[in-house]
Each structure stands twice: as C-alpha cells, then as structure tokens.
Amino acid sequence: MAHAVPSLGISFERVTAPCPWGSNRRNSTPCQGRDRHARRTIELLLTGVLASVAVAFGVYGAAAETLPGALARAYGANPQLNAERASLRAVDENVPRALSGYRPRISAEADAGVAAMRSSTPGGMEGASGQSGSLFPRGAGITLNQTLFDGFRTRNNVRTAESQVFGAREALRNTEQNLLFDAVSAYMNVLRDTAILDLQRNNVELLNEQLSQTRERYEAGQVTRTDVSQAEARLAGSRSQVSLAEANLRASIARYRQVIGVDPKTLAPGPPADRWLPRSLPAAVQVALAEHPAIKASLHGVDAAELEVKVVEGELYPSLGLSAGLSRRSDVETRGDARTAATAVVRLTVPIYEGGEVYARTRQAKETAGQRRIEVEVTRDQVRAAVLSAWGQLEATKAQITAAQTQIQASEIALTGVREEARVGQRTTLEVLNAQQELLNARVNLVTAQRDRVVASYSVLSAVGRLSARVLALRAPSYDAKRHFDQVKDLWIGLRTPDGR
C-alpha cells in the first residue's frame, strides 16, 4: 500500500508565469515559445519536488525495506554487536572460575624406573665378597586438596564475578543502543542523500531548460552575452553539486552496508520515535538517571571494586585446608616389596608479615573503588547532558521543519514574482537564477530537517536508555544474556561451550 505524500506547504499553482524570462528590455518584444517554456519549467519543478518527497518520505509499495526491518536486521547480524555478546559470554565464565574455590582439587601421579645396585665387602685372606642386582621401583598415588576457609576470599570473588557479569550486561545494552542509533542514522542518511541527489539532478534539468531559453533570447537580441554566461555558470555549478550529492550518497550507502549488513534497495518512510519518549524534559532526565545502561554499568563497577578490597584483605586472614592422599609403591628397597600409604592432613596457615605487599594492594584497591564511585557521578553528568542536548536538538528540528516549509512557500512566491518582473524587464537573468537557487536551498533544507527530526527523536530515546529491541518491538529473536550464564555457572567439568564449540 502506498504511503501518502506529506504536504510541504508548496503551492505549485503559483508557478505559472506566462513568460519565464521576460520581454526584450530594449523593444519589449514578447519572448518566443513562451507557453512551451512555462509548461516545461512547471513540469521540472513538480518532478523535482515530488521525486524528492517520494524518496525522503517513502512513497513506495509494500515491498520496501522499513526502518524497523532494517533495525531488526542490524540487531541480529551486526558483527560489532555479536562481538560484544561474545565478550559477555567470556565474562560469564568468571563466575564458575570463582566458584572453583569452593571445590576440591584432585590430582593423580604415577612413576616407574629402574635401579641397579652393586655392593662389595672386604673379606681378609678369603678375599672380597659382593653382590649386585636391579630393582624396578614404581608407584601411583592420588591427592585431594580442599580449602575449608580462606578468609572469605572465594565468597567475595564469586560476588565480584557476578557484579562484573551484571556490568557487562549493561555494557551490552549500551552497545545495542549505540548500534540501533547508528542504524537509524544510516537509514535516514540514505533517504536524505537520495532526495537531495534527485533535487540537484532536477535542478540541472531546469537550468538546462533556462540556458536554452536564454540562448534563444540572445539569438533574438533580447539579452546580452552576459546573461548567457550567467546561466552557463549556474549550470556548471549545479552539475558540480550533483557530483557532490552522488559522492555523499555513495558514502551513506557504504555506511548503511556496514551497519545493517546489506545494501539499501527501496526504503520506506522512517517514522520518528515520539511514542516511546517521555512527555517532558524533566521526565526524560529522571528516566535516564534511573534506567540508562551506562549508569547501571558504572554502579556494578563500584560493587566489583568494593568487593575486590575484601578479596585482598582476605589474604591477611588465616586459612584452613585439608589434604588427603593415597599411594602405593613397589620395589622400593628389595625386589617384590610393596607399600601402601594413606594420609590426611589439616593445615592451618596464619600470615604474620608478608613485607607490606598485601597492605599496599589493599590501599590500592580502596583508591580504585573511590575512583569508580567518582566515575558514576561523571557518567550521570554525561547522561544528563546528553538528554538535555538531544531534547533541545529534537525541539530545534521541529522548528526547522516549520521554518523550511515557510521558506519554501515564500521562495515559491518570490520566484513567481521575479519571473513576472523579469517578463516586463524589471529583473535580470541573475536575479531569476538566484530566486531559483533559493527555492532549491529551501527544499534541501526541508529534506535535511525531516531527516534530522527522525534521528533526533531516536537520539532522545537513546539518551534516556530506552533504545532497545524490546522497546521497539523489533521482529528479531531477542538475545537472552541470562541464558548462557545459567548454562555455565554451575558446570564442574566440560570443555565444550553451550553452543557446541
């Protein structure tokens, strides 16, 4: 189903000057081909505006790519986001590593060898006597070590690892926000640059038509060579603007491919995110300070740093451990002998002085924890400033759209008036060209403002911490960060990852 074309406030019926270039200033001879030129000019104006509106605001059929569809594609397949997810899964493994402090460590060993012996005894008049032989000593044993108390270091290590996991999850949410915002910007940039390119190409066609008219009038003696040169110069400049617009569009397409993963084809309208935004600026700031993932990640960083202080302090506490072993050895002293031994030892270790190294690391950990607390305030200030900036930008873009629409209306009226005055010899060719350029600039400003309006709304949504696949209800499988954590946190053995690697 086609989308309705939004009104830009342009009254096309006013572009009906009976003679675009006016009469001869010397003899007031009417311009030749007046009706044909006027119709051609109006056709080009209408074609340019409607084409740019169709591209910028998505006047396409049902097969067009939508902004939610592009965001879902980026959410599911963007390499940067997938790399961040892999990083989170790696952080998850810190928890079973820390839990290993509660578990026994068991090792087995075996050995085998050969021993040759030769002995002699002095024997007086009967001479010396001696003996020789070989032994094959061998043995095997198993040892178990179990920590009974380690100054609460294992418990605090587990809590530290869990805080790191929670912080990494929030960092992943923040990366997801940034990616989705980049995808919105890339999507809207392609729409904007395509519309501007169409406007610039249409302007070249219009200036070509105007140059043709000016040359006809020059041959008829109605204008001077200066008028022709002015039209030629303006056409050359317009062609350079087409080249620039093409380069900008190619860059936007490349960025789209990088973020979303495919080349853009037919793009549908990019709706703003207004329905998900808080109703006022104070409410937006309040939501951001409570929900933004960057702030939550910083708070988890504080928790981890404070727990690290306790981990280091635990090295000053006594530790208690159990060691048990079972071994069997053969051919130790004589061939065929065998010995079996079993041991169980409880060992208490009390640190007395370790040179001050643990004390230094404890103080260092406390300073790091203080740094993390300060960084939370820095992050809050950054988030607050981002909300204020994004909200102000959103309000500014709304005003820019209104101003651009008014500018287009005024420029249309001005262009019509300049053409009418040029027809009776009161305006020059340059003034007509300038009026046409002002109208083109107004249309470009409107296209740019519409793009900025959509991007600014998503910028506010990102600034308050709600730009996510869940909030946007994207049609893409949601990544469950908790699932991998639950799969690995209680594993005692196993080399394969949950996905089979």
Explain the layout of strands and helices.
Elements lengths: L33 H24 L9 H11 L1 H14 L1 H6 L5 E8 L2 E7 L7 E7 L2 E12 L3 H67 L5 H36 L20 H11 L1 H21 L5 E12 L7 E12 L7 H67 L5 H35 L5 H4 L8 H8 L13
Antiparallel strand pairs: 1-4, 2-3, 4-5, 5-6
Helix pairs in contact: 1-5, 1-10, 2-5, 3-5, 3-12, 5-6, 5-8, 5-10, 7-9, 8-9, 9-10
Describe this entry's structure for a reader:
The chain crosses the membrane at residues 44-63. It is found in: Cell outer membrane. Keywords: Cell outer membrane, Coiled coil, Membrane, Transmembrane, Transmembrane beta strand, Transmembrane helix, Transport. There is one protein chain. The protein is α+β, with helices and mostly antiparallel strands. It has a single domain (12-117, 128-488), classed as Outer membrane efflux proteins (OEP), CATH 1.20.1600.10. The chain has twelve helices and six strands. A four-stranded antiparallel sheet has the order 1-4-5-6, with no helix packed on it. A hairpin with a 7-residue loop joins strand 5 and strand 6 (338-349). The protein is elongated and about 145 Å long. The relative contact order is 0.16.
Quaternary status: single chain
Please give the CATH class: Mainly Alpha
Overall geometry: elongated
- How many DSSP H or I helices? 12
Return the domain count: 1
Along the chain, the helix and strand elements come as HHHHEEEEHHHHEEHHHH
Main β-sheet: number of strands, strand sense, barrel status? 4 strands, antiparallel
Q: State the helicity in percent bands.
A: 55-70%
Q: Please state the CA-atom Rg, rounded to the nearest Å.
A: 40 Å
* CATH topology label: Outer membrane efflux proteins (OEP)
Number of DSSP-assigned strands: 6
Terminal CA distance reads 46 Å
Beta strand %: 5-15%
CATH homologous superfamily identity: Outer membrane efflux proteins (OEP)
Overall mean pLDDT: 83
| Widest sheet, order of strands | 1-4-5-6
Q: How does CATH name the architecture?
A: Up-down Bundle
Low-confidence stretches: 1-62
Q: Could you say which structural class the secondary elements and strand pairing correspond to?
A: alpha+beta
